[in-house]
User: What shape does this take?
Amino acid sequence: MDLVSLLPELLKGILHFTWGNALMIAAALVLIYLAIYKEIEPVLLLPIGFGCLLANIPLAGMTAGEGMMAVLYNAGISTELFPLLIFVGVGAMIDFSPLLAQPRMALLGAAGQFGIFGTLLLAILIGFPLNEAASIGVIGAIDGPTSIFVATKLAPELLAPIAVAAYSYMSLIPIIQPPLMKLLTTKKERLIRMEYTPKPISKKTLAFFPVLLTLVVGLLVPEATPLISMLMLGNLLKVSGVVDRLSKSAQNEIINVATLFLGLTIGATMSAASFLNLATIKILGLGLLAFVLDTVAGLLFGKLMAVLSRYKINPLIGAAGISAFPMAGRLAAKVANDEDPDNFILMHAMGANTAGQLGSVIAGGILLAIVSKLI
Amino acid sequence: MDLVSLLPELLKGILHFTWGNALMIAAALVLIYLAIYKEIEPVLLLPIGFGCLLANIPLAGMTAGEGMMAVLYNAGISTELFPLLIFVGVGAMIDFSPLLAQPRMALLGAAGQFGIFGTLLLAILIGFPLNEAASIGVIGAIDGPTSIFVATKLAPELLAPIAVAAYSYMSLIPIIQPPLMKLLTTKKERLIRMEYTPKPISKKTLAFFPVLLTLVVGLLVPEATPLISMLMLGNLLKVSGVVDRLSKSAQNEIINVATLFLGLTIGATMSAASFLNLATIKILGLGLLAFVLDTVAGLLFGKLMAVLSRYKINPLIGAAGISAFPMAGRLAAKVANDEDPDNFILMHAMGANTAGQLGSVIAGGILLAIVSKLI
Amino acid sequence: MDLVSLLPELLKGILHFTWGNALMIAAALVLIYLAIYKEIEPVLLLPIGFGCLLANIPLAGMTAGEGMMAVLYNAGISTELFPLLIFVGVGAMIDFSPLLAQPRMALLGAAGQFGIFGTLLLAILIGFPLNEAASIGVIGAIDGPTSIFVATKLAPELLAPIAVAAYSYMSLIPIIQPPLMKLLTTKKERLIRMEYTPKPISKKTLAFFPVLLTLVVGLLVPEATPLISMLMLGNLLKVSGVVDRLSKSAQNEIINVATLFLGLTIGATMSAASFLNLATIKILGLGLLAFVLDTVAGLLFGKLMAVLSRYKINPLIGAAGISAFPMAGRLAAKVANDEDPDNFILMHAMGANTAGQLGSVIAGGILLAIVSKLI
Amino acid sequence: MDHGLSSIVYGQMDINMSDTFIQALQITALGMGLVFGAIILLWGMMSLLTAITADKDSFHASRGRASAASAPVMDGELKAQAAAVAVAIALAEQQTSLAHPLPDPPTAFVSAWQLGMRTRQMYQKGDSFRR
Amino acid sequence: MDHGLSSIVYGQMDINMSDTFIQALQITALGMGLVFGAIILLWGMMSLLTAITADKDSFHASRGRASAASAPVMDGELKAQAAAVAVAIALAEQQTSLAHPLPDPPTAFVSAWQLGMRTRQMYQKGDSFRR
Amino acid sequence: MDHGLSSIVYGQMDINMSDTFIQALQITALGMGLVFGAIILLWGMMSLLTAITADKDSFHASRGRASAASAPVMDGELKAQAAAVAVAIALAEQQTSLAHPLPDPPTAFVSAWQLGMRTRQMYQKGDSFRR
Ligand code: NA
Ligand code: NA
Ligand code: NA
Assistant: This one.
């Protein structure tokens, strides 16, 4: 053994460190900082940031071959198991009764998906091929699991920037949406009060809804079946009221473990070599646009509904149709409340918000169906 | 892109829908209905029903290739991991002290396995090959994990109807058993009261029992080792009293997650194409017979023990020897109690019931050993 | 079917039973006994003992091919997932503030690793090849996951005796260390009291520490990245205070399930055929030596620090630098307290103990780096 | 990886891109149409579902409607107090709501709304309906 | 998949089926014999195990036996009350017991039995042993 | 598997073993050197980290130091009582601490120490600093 010849070998970590690694580690530290000190989506940004850190430590071997991150990626991202398991947990936390009590709110969940297609158009315009443009567009679903599911199918090489954009901007919704709301609605519109005289929803309806929805969406858009069915499975576990054990498992161990592993592995795809390029910057820009387009389309459709309903509908709830459950719903209610402290539109906004969740999954499935056929 | 040519493509889900799918979806809805509104084995029938729903949505792609259900099937059913993990949890919930306090109750756990072999005979008679007949017979184990374990080894193509029969009839035990109990026992027999003057079972005995049982059964019936050892591992985690963390994990996250995934994947094997055939109907019929034969054999053996003990033993506890832990034990106690409100035979019935659980696993292993050698 | 020819087949389990199996089963029973009645590391010794039992039941088929233990081994040991997940949980339970409050305690965590290299020397001397000698040496890390991680990489064929030695001796620390402590320190030294006037550690420091440590250790010793990063991830989940869900998951379901499966699969590698040989006995002897060497080196370094600090440092805390978190730390405090009931050195000992945990991982990574290059 | 440039350089590519863009426009039209179609179907399905099950739950339904209909508004001064409560709730929720996809159990917002309504009813003084 | 018909059509198949049936009968005899053999062995093992450990726990054992042996029956009127309690418990358990394989922790039945026994003892009035 | 014998039999092997041993000595020297190097770096890093963040937390820091510095010793009789409490705690912890790698949340030892310190402070009578 020649110890002197060993020494450079022992410094190999530092010798292989690149400026790209340094930049990505800085980005990782920013994500971790936002998660801890700004409490922005910490359950996702903290693991993503930590995964990014790991991916940029040279020769650590965690993201290649039999490394832990590679093992988790193959087990849960390639197979789409992690996003689907997260949906089981999210489903067990969603309450569809505000939507079932006011079914017309569903329309807002359709309008709020325009950002998907608008962003696809823009991505095509600046030169992305169709499969990649569609994956970028689906950032406009404003729903992490849907974005990851579609991107994994159409353009897995873009998964990292797409997931990062989806989750980062989602956490910035309280900053992105209010200026648009104020710009696109008049004070008079924001002051509209809405009656909430809901039909009471029976337990039977609540239990039949997820089953029926799985069937109808599954038959119409087979590509959306995995996403919608797992969301509805989680919801059925909860509302059925007879499988408390499984419902609690879905809301706790299943979603927690899947979220931790998903965050880590998504972060671990952010190595300097694959992340630092022009495409990433474009995707981050297009992703922001997707959020803006969604919100604008939702608000404009809300204004249309306000007119058609003779101003019985507050257009602000249109902004809740973009998905981003449950933040967007609460934000719309808060903006109305800030304008008039006596104006409560939370239940209507939550109806639009859950509709946006469904609309996002359906739009993701439709996009997947069309684009899979064309490429 | 020719949009007109795309439209049929977009309706492909409905175009591929068959009458068989409709029938299976109706069956799925019945299972879900029974689970939610009749509360029949909801932790299993609800996931099985939902899995069946998913398997019959055309082109959803969840049960083939890299679909979620296929991934879970390969991970947990092919490897037998899910039934074995469920056994770890079940073991952590079983209390063997009623059996240890009255060891002769063990005999009833042997008699209650006759349904396995009787059904095998009938299945051979109506033309099933040996491996399939044995798999059908093991429905008579009246224990989900044992049925699934043996069927996976001998005839995986019949797994769906076997699992469905096992779990459905298990939930119908309060309907199947009482008429047989009243038919085969006299009122005088049902009125027999039993002394319960148990030897107190020390913690040391309780902890040594699962270890010893694993060794003895493992050496005698190696094929039963996976099942019996995981049941006993769970029990050891509980009775040892020193690994509370692991015992709670077994009783909660491990069994909950395994049960949810097992139910879903079993249900997802119920596609119209593979489930709707004459064999399935025969299996469902034979499965019902297996339950009847088990109960009859158990009761007749109970009557024999009643005679031999000079009517110190109530023959009703024979019906608890079929396994179906813990429902069969409670049901026997209830029937005796209905006849004479002052007659308490619950502890004796639970002794026979836990013996039936052991007998089922042993019989499953013996069947597997014999049939594996012959085919 | 010739039933008579079947009978020997049915006794095959007993016919294949060897004296070696009997011996290993006796060993398994001893491990289970120690776990339950002496409460020595029950969360590990109980599963290891039970796994050993399973591995020595002939023809049970659990440890080969598609058997459950083989499936778990491939899923979690070959991939190193189980030890790493255990580290996520351990990290979420460690408190680094005593170390951060007295950074010089870190030095003791370096001294306590001498056993690794001393044992490597001895193993070379008695003829083990370098890869095996290094794996045996890493028993001196006195940290289960580190030992398993390094042994899996360098000499997986020795995993069973190494893991058994690591965990068994760790549980015997209250017996191994005190005589050495009394032999190597004077009463005057043991009576030294230490001031504990810690700098208060801010939440910011606590959160930045695991991130910084991952980066620094990762860049210097890439081979240690998987271990150190998962330990630090768990710690970050806890100290960040913003991802309570994930922190609780790490401290409960993740570590519990990984521990149960790790114990079982490690135990299941202890089949008579592969475990009963001279190498195992040598490894068990060398492992004990590793513990002794670690303690001696730690104490001697503690004495050196006592002299250099003009007897402001109690040398007993040197014995806490060996890792074995948190037992070694508590033991050192207890020995000082036994000597003088008014002497409290717990916080200093815990500082040295957490430093030992870090030192063990770093030393394991360095050893891996050097030996991987040489073989 | 530089998608932006590679397809603009040549005139022919430009034409191709134009084709692709037209295709993308068609996808957008078809996609948004289908999304709206599916959602409208969903709307109908939900209306039907609640209508069917409402018949069977008519007693509860009518009772529920009655209580909702009789919930009048409160007068000026008390409005402000109730609003203060509700805003406090909304703000408190906002703070805890950042952790998507792990939201609070949704009962939280139901009860927030109910609390708001109850506050209203508590302070009500027999005013006429506002409509 | 139609197993029923394919093997009855030909005479030769019928003979084969008959052979198979004899084989199945042998499997049944052997199988049930082995199951009973294994269970009888288990019985012996359990008796031995409890006998061995009972020696070491003789103090507790005798005490336990004494209290069990001294549990007499109660008289007519009170029996009905106790039975009502026990049946209520049994029914309550029955309702929660459907969710196999996720039964309640088995302490539930132990305590149910204990409750029944305690109810008896509570009402006991020094009657003689029933045997 | 018999590593012990195979390499001692021949003289040549012996030489090889000697080479291997020298290599192992070099590994030991290099390894321990690197471990100490890494740990010293860690020491510096931790000192720097606490120094930097301490500046920003100076208010809390100084307050903390003050309270810690003012913690004096107690006199003989009370020492024994406090020690008894602390030892009881330590022993109780020791018993529950065997289950590595699943230790109690480390707050346990912090609070044990704090309890010991608080016990001291509770009994303190204005003695001078011991140093
Ligand atoms: Na959306
Ligand atoms: Na049975
Ligand atoms: Na160490």
Summary: Chain D has five helices and no strands. Chains D and E do not touch (no CB pair under 8 Å).
